[in-house]
Request: fold
Amino acid sequence: MSKRCRSWRPVWVEGHSGHLPHQCRECWFPCRNKVSEGYRCSECWEALSEHPDAEVRLKLAEENGTPSDILGLLATDTNPGVALAAQARLENTTGPIVLETHDDEEW
Reply:
């Protein structure tokens, strides 16, 4: 039996936003794409990580099982709450984040 994505996927409806997953069937629908591993397909990971609502991105950053590449993307989010949550999750799974600096390079 094939595994299926169990995520909610956003639907872009003009003039209709601000609803969280499973609250509105106009803004969200359950995805059933095939997945090789995990519980969410790559299309859903991408759509949720780029969602315009910061609350959706924050929930994704706080969710158990979010892949490190998605957390890395969210760690650079323009919303400070999302970025801090993702950075904290990355630090908990990989240790402290160390940014490389190169003093000898010119900008």
Summary: The first strand starts at residue 3 and ends at 4. The longest helix spans residues 80-94.
